[in-house]
Amino acid sequence: MMTPYVVTRYYRAPEVILGIGYSANVDVWSIGCIFAELIRGKVLFPGTDHIDQWTKIVEILGTPGQEFTCRLQSTVRTYVENRQRCAARSWEVLFPDSMFPPMVESRLSAPTARDLLSRMLVIDPNHRISVEDALKHPYVCLWYDPVEVDAPAPGKYDSGVELHEHTVDEWKDLIFTEIKQFESTHDIHGVNQQEASNGLEHSNMDLQ
Asked: What mean pLDDT is predicted for residues 106-129?
């Protein structure tokens, strides 16, 4: 069942706000919002409710075209199309070079970051960059490791923790404990040190 409560409002994609269903690249929008927030130092679309959220998006990205609005439910389409039309703001104005740290690698330039943002923060999901293509983007592929991306899950997920109610502070403690346990057994690259050590021992034995 599709629900509009899949993510915090500030990072909620247009297709979720307007109720037209969503696919994998709904997360690309959310990550784009977080990426923009990291650069600007503040939330890009700080809506107070779902209507204001849509308003904040349109004021920055502009009013979507008919190719998008024709897929909306009639009442939603009427609302969207009857609002005052907005022009998209320039990415160079929204994210000027001064917001970025000094360039230490050619692929991590301000123009490259803006290009990625412009592909992630697209109202129509049919024209938004896919997860696969985002991973190949020059700003991201620097860290892309297919072995890591395509690796099997580190362990079977234990859903037992979800069977009980927890306060916010309890959730924080549970997450913190999980992170510390992971850090105690893995290096900075996420490699399990015990498994790596066992693999090295086996390799040495084979050589002997």
From this structure: 95
